[in-house]
Amino acid sequence: MMYLFLFLNIIFPLQSELLLVDLYNQNEWIENYKTNDGKIIYESNDNINGKYIKVEKKVSYLKTDIFKKLKSISDYNQIISNKNVDTKLLIQDGDTLYAYQRINNSVPFIRDRQYIFKMYQINENRLDWYILDRNHRLLKKFIDEDVHTLSYGAGSWYLDRGSLSNRIFVDDEVNLPIGFLHKVRVNNVIEIFNDVINSLNKEN
Q1: Residue 190 and residue 54: Cα distance in Å, rounded?
Q2: pLDDT, tens digit (0-9, with 9 covering 90-100), for 115-138
Q3: Under CATH, domain 18-202 is a member of which superfamily?
Q4: Cβ neighbours around 82 below 10 Å, total
Q5: What is the spatial distance between Cα 156 and Cα 135, in angstroms, rounded to a whole number?
Q6: If pLDDT is split at 50, 70 and 90, which confidence band does 2 have?
Q7: Max Cα separation, the chain?
Q8: Residue 146, Cα to own-chain centre: how many angstroms?
Q9: Which residues contact 179 (CB under 8 A, 6 or more apart)?
Q10: What is the 3-class SS of the chain, one letter each residue?
Q11: CA angle at residue 73 from 66 to 184, to 5 degrees?
Q12: Which residue, among 73, 166, 77, 56, has the nearest Cα to 119 in the 3D structure?
């Protein structure tokens, strides 16, 4: 499948939607470690843009509650504990959501990051999102030379027999050592997973 992904990226360079295909056809997830509260962190083998990340944990929440929480983009600024992340719901069209997200960077000489993502439910067990191309019309009013616009990333939440997983890859487009970046990415994915779980706990 990796060869197909490489081929498609040559024809259609860095299309975020293609990431969703690869995240679910990735058969070489390697267990990295387990946390004390039952989360299992996996990573893929190296690919052309870095390692994919998957966090998985057994949960007992109602399926409807989980996906309602994940789609409540208007509440993300309360759900997400990292206050450097600002999220705005732009458009809701039925079950499809478009949202703007800005990450204020505290690292010197590195600009803030921003992107717009599209989120939609595939079925009752799966919710996907991907970052839109930086030329998308919705981004026009956010373009700013002081903010770097990302255009390559995707993720998916999946519930299977009581096990909730979050698969994700986002190219931060930061010129830092890949090993350091991967650790930051893993920590961010775990933090988001924890935020969702903590928010569900408050309502149960």
Answers
A1: 9
A2: 999 999 999 999 999 999 988 899
A3: START domain (3.30.530.20)
A4: 12
A5: 23
A6: very low
A7: 47
A8: 23
A9: none
A10: CHHHHHHHHHHCCCCHHHHHHHHHHCCCCEEEEECCCCCEEEECCCECCECCEEEEEECCCCHHHHHHHHCCHHHHHHHCCCCCEEEEEEEEECCEEEEEEEECCCCCCCCEEEEEEEEEEEECCEEEEEECCCCCHHHHHHCCCCEEECCCEEEEEEEECCEEEEEEEECCCCCCCHHHHHHHHHHHHHHHHHHHHHHHHHCC
A11: 85
A12: 73
Residue at 160: amino acid letter? D
Mean pLDDT of the chain: 88
What is the C-alpha to C-alpha distance for residues 185 and 55, in angstroms, rounded to an integer? 12
Q: Tokens 């929480």 sit at which residue?
A: 69
Q: How far is CA 177 from the centre of its chain?
A: 21
Look up residue 11 and give its two tokens: 């024809």
**Residue pair 77/66 in contact by the 8 Å Cβ criterion:** no
Reference 65, options 200, 161, 157; nearest CA is 200
For the entire predicted model, the pTM comes to 0.89
The tens digit of pLDDT for each residue in 132-157 reads 998 889 988 998 888 999 999 999 99
